[in-house]
Write a structure and sequence with these properties.
This protein is mainly α. The protein has helices at residues 6-29, 31-77, 81-87, 94-116, 119-165, 170-180, 185-197, 202-207, 209-212, 216-231, 235-284, 286-294, 296-320. The N and C termini lie far apart (113 Å).
Length: 324
């Protein structure tokens, strides 16, 4: 053996051993397995973080949706003055309503001042004319318009149902109602078509009907259209069931109104009888009622009797008014 080649052989053997050790040691020591576990753990952590972020986003979306629904319901339950004016069918601004209220207050106050000559009575009349009478009229017009809407809404739904069964699109059916139905259904469905024309989806436009007409029937109609737009299905069958429900509710309301009419008449007679009696006695025997208005005891008796009668009227009103 050539001794001159011995160092080369030793160096080659040492290099090969070191290289083998460097390649084999990680497997023997478990470093490779540890690295794989770390990578897997890091992947799981990333997946967990991604899932947590998705859950957090979903919870945020649900919270935003619930908040929007709560704000919408608050607007419906406590409508602003502008919304009440629109629900009454008046095309007035808030400023115009205040101007009309001020005019009514001035007219009533001036008339009371001329009639009685008492500034206190005039001030009371102006207060009633400025804050009481206009809002009462607004509430009356709003209630009457909502009642007419409930009266003719089932007919509008029937028209849409027949149009769908004959093959017309939903938009064309709603357009027919907007052109041919009775007021105020005609106006409300025309607003739906106007909102759809400016790019609002039909389901959202129909959903706003509940804000303008805060009744359960309008909410039912909006829910049906929204569900059909998202989930699909036979809209004619769903609208057929809705039309039946609306007509049944209308029949129940009419039946309740007829059954409670006798109680309402009795309550009206009972509530007005003391005033009629006082008026007749004051005309036939003025001296008999004079002490009730001129003495302290008489005034106390009148105030107490008035409060007691008011309590009875409110109790009777609560008993004969049905909401469902």
């Amino acid at each position: 053996m050539d001794l001159g080649k011995l160092p080369v052989i030793l160096l080659a053997t040492t290099a090969a051993g070191l290289a083998s050790y460097a390649l084999v040691y990680p497997y023997l020591s478990g470093d490779i397995r540890a690295e794989k576990r770390q990578k897997a753990f890091g992947l799981d952590r990333r997946q967990g973080a991604t899932q947590a972020a998705a859950d957090s986003l979903r919870r945020g979306q649900v919270a935003d949706s619930l908040k929007a629904l709560d704000e919408r319901q608050k607007r419906i339950d406590r409508p602003s003055l502008q919304m009440r004016i629109a629900q009454a069918g008046l095309e007035w601004s808030v400023q115009k309503f205040f101007v009309v209220s001020a005019i009514i207050a001035g007219v009533l106050g001036f008339a009371a001042l001329l009639g009685t000559g008492d500034i206190r009575v005039a001030g009371l009349a102006a207060f009633v004319g400025g804050l009481g009478l206009p809002r009462w009229l607004l509430g009356y017009l709003r209630k009457r318009r909502i009642a007419r809407f409930l009266q003719f809404l089932p007919d509008g739904v029937e028209v849409i149902l027949r149009g769908l069964k004959s093959g017309l699109p939903l938009g064309d059916c709603i357009r027919i109602v907007a052109n041919e139905a009775q007021e105020p259904v005609k106006t409300e469905f025309r607003k739906i078509m106007e909102e759809q024309a400016i790019g609002i989806p039909l389901s959202d436009a129909v959903g706003k009907l509940y804000e303008r007409m805060p009744v359960s029937e309008a909410n039912f109609f909006g829910i049906v259209i929204a569900i059909q737009a998202k989930a699909g299905g036979s809209l004619s069958d769903v609208l057929g069931n809705l039309a039946k429900v609306l007509r049944d509710r209308k029949k129940i309301k009419q039946k309740i109104a007829s059954l409670s009419m006798e109680a309402k008449a009795s309550a009206s007679i009972i509530g007005s009888l003391p005033l009629i009696t006082i008026g007749i006695i004051s005309l036939t025997s003025p001296q008999y009622m004079t002490s009730m208005f001129t003495t302290d005891m008489g005034r106390v008796m009148l105030i107490g009797s008035g409060l007691w009668m008011l309590t009875g009227i409110l109790v009777m009103r609560k008993m004969i008014n049905f909401k469902f």
